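Hello K.,

You asked for the raw outputs rather than the summary table, so here they are, unedited. I folded two proteins back to back in the same session to keep the settings identical. This is the first:
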Amino acid sequence: MPAEKRTPVKVYLTAEENDHLTRQAKALDIERGQLIRLRALGDPTIAGKAPATPTAHFSLKTYQNAVTAASRAARGCAPRAILESIAAAILCSIHADDQTQTTVARPIGASQTDG
C-alpha cells in the first residue's frame, strides 16, 4: 500500500509545550507528529492531558496491529487517520466489554454447565 500523502499544518508552541509533547511521545514510543495527529483527530487512546506514561489498557503494538489490519481490510478506501480512530474505538470497546464481564457478580459455587 503506498504511503498516504499528508498536508503539513503549522502549529505554534512554546519551548515548554514542545518539550512536553516530545517527552510524552517518547514515553508512548511514537513520533511527536503522530502524537499531535492522534490528539487532533480525537483519538481515545491518547487523551488531551495524558500523563508522561501510557494509560491505555492495551499496548501500542496491539493498537498498531489493529490499524494495520484495518488498513488491509479497507484496501485504500479510507484515510489512515479514520482507520486509526476506528481501530482505537474498537479496542476501547472490547476493553470496556471485558471490564463489564469481569465485574458481573456470580454466586460462589454456581454451576457453569448447561446440564
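The second followed immediately with the same parameters:
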Amino acid sequence: MGNSLFFFTRRGYEEANRNLPATGSRMRDAMKAFLSAACILMLAGCIGSGPGKTLHEAASSLERKDSAAFLAKLDAGRYAAAYMDNLTQGNPALKALDSTVGKLFGVGVADMLNSLARVEEQLVDDFRTRVATGELVNECSRAASTDCPWVPASLRGAKIKELGPDAAVAHVTVPGNIATWIAMSKTGEEWKIVGLSPREDFAARYAKNPPIPPARPATPAKPERPTSI
C-alpha cells in the first residue's frame, strides 16, 4: 500500500513536472495574445477618435488618390488664411516662396494677399489635381521644404500634441528628414487640418485661433474737383 501510494504520488509529481512547461507555454501564449489585443484596442482607441484619426484617413485618401476624401479632412478657408499668414511673418525662407507661388498660381504674394477667396480656390484646385494624379505624394516624398508633409507613412507616424479639447499640432517628418507642424482643430465632432508651419508656435496659434487675413489696402479717395463759382 505504501509502495502504491509512493508510486502514484511520484508519478503524479512527474506528470505535473512534464505538463508544467506546456502549461506555462500556454499561459505565456495566452498572455501575449491578451497583451497584443489590449495594445490593438488602445491604439484603435487613440486612432479611432481625435486628431490621429484625421491624419490616418488623410494618409489613406492619398494612397487611394482620392482627392475628395483628402479635401474633406481640410478646412480650406482656415488653411488658406494660415498659408497667407505664413507668407507675411517676416520669415525669409517663407517669403522666398513668392517665386514658387508665382509659378504655381500665376500671381505674386502681394496679389494673393488681396483675395483670400482666390487663395482658397487655388489651393483647393491644386490639391484636387495633385492628389488625384499622385503628384503630391511623389513631390513630398522627396521634398526639400517644410510645406510638403503629405506622405502617407509620415502622416501615420506623426507625433501629436493636444493643446486642449479642440486644438492640436502634429509634428511630421518626411523621408528627406524635413519636418513641419500641422495645425488641427476640432469642429463639431470632427478634427480638421487647418494650417502648416515650420514653427510649432505658429501651428499652435493656427490650431487655437484662425488667423485674420490682412485687410486689403483701401483705395485712396480721389481728390474732389473744385467747383466753379
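Confidence is low (pLDDT under 50) at residues 1-17, 33-47, 214-221.

Happy to rerun anything if the numbers look odd on your end.

Regards,
P.
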